[in-house]
Design a protein that fits this description.
Oligomer: single chain
Number of strands: 0
Structural class: mainly alpha
Helix content: over 70%
Strand content: under 5%
Number of helices: 16
Shape: globular
Length: 289
């Protein structure tokens, strides 16, 4: 509001400033309530917050996206998709709701979900929306296709999209760790060497210690150590990640499945594997996934 008033050369009135401050405060309160609902594993609360709405929810897609992302973290993908469809109708030009919609479809993994997710992401890519988030989710769907098809070209496509994203944003650990893991899956000596290089670069970003209230950063640090075959250190960080986000079951499932895939290629000993298994002992064994 201050910017708009400056552009047109009209001073911001006291009433307008007061209104803007009220809306900022309301948005912060809503964001805190969303975070609390995720922490408390309360998907019904997230849905209620969205349905009750209020002006801050109507002026930006941010709060709706945060609520939907919370549902995805809680493995409530059907509810997230319904919420995101409503957000997209209200904010048709916003990119973030479409990214999350594709992610929820990919995680739900029902009939046609993967192809529908790729339709969304392929369109964004064609429109030059090639930020690390779009490329990362797109790459993830190609990995899902590889899991179904076994076609090495699908795996290479996944790795290449992650590598493209990491090259464009070398301080972003998400595409970096995935470029590393997909290189492990390719499995040649050259790819394994490249995987270790990516993992070392990621480790410089995320470090080797837990990050309070940041599940994915801590889990990524653990995965980078796993790729470098530092199993005991990796296990401790995985345990810290899970302990800091016990209600995010969907995130735990995704992390454990990824660790299982990596260990299939890295072939740790039984003792080394046990370090990685311990934090996820509530989830099925690798061979049951």
């Amino acid at each position: 509001m201050r910017l708009l008033h400056a552009v047109v050369g009209i001073p911001l009135s006291e009433e307008a400033a007061h209104f803007a401050n009220e809306q900022d405060e309301a948005a912060m309160v809503a964001a805190a309530r969303i975070a609390a609902a995720v922490k408390n594993k309360n998907r019904e609360r997230l849905i209620k917050l969205f349905e009750d709405e209020g002006l801050p929810w109507e002026t930006t897609s941010m709060l709706g996206c945060r609520a939907a992302e919370g549902l995805i973290k809680l493995d409530a993908n059907n509810e997230a998709i319904r919420m995101l469809e409503a957000v997209e109708n209200r904010f048709p030009k916003a990119v973030r709701p479409r990214q999350l919609h594709a992610l929820a479809l990919a995680r739900r993994a029902g009939n046609d979900d993967l192809m529908n997710a790729q339709d969304i992401l392929g369109e964004l890519y064609a429109r030059e929306e090639r930020d690390p988030e779009t490329l990362g989710i797109y790459a993830r769907t190609w990995m899902d296709r590889y899991a179904s098809s076994g076609d090495i070209a699908d795996l290479k496509q996944s790795r290449d999209y992650y590598a493209e994203a990491f090259s464009a944003a070398p301080d972003d650990y998400y595409p970096g760790i995935n470029a590393a893991s997909k290189s492990v899956f390719l499995g040649t000596a050259e790819d394994l060497t490249q995987a270790a290089t990516y993992a070392e670069q990621v480790q410089q970003i995320v470090g080797t210690t837990p990050h309070r209230d940041d599940y994915w950063r801590t889990a990524t640090a653990a995965e980078a150590l796993l790729i470098q075959r530092k199993y005991e250190q990796a296990g401790r960080l995985y345990e810290a990640a899970v302990a800091g986000a016990r209600t995010e079951i969907g995130s735990h499932k995704s992390t454990w499945k990824q660790a299982c895939r990596l260990m299939d290629k890295l072939e740790p000993t039984a003792e080394e594997r046990a370090y990685i298994r311990k934090p996820f002992d509530a989830l099925p064994n690798c061979d049951e996934l």
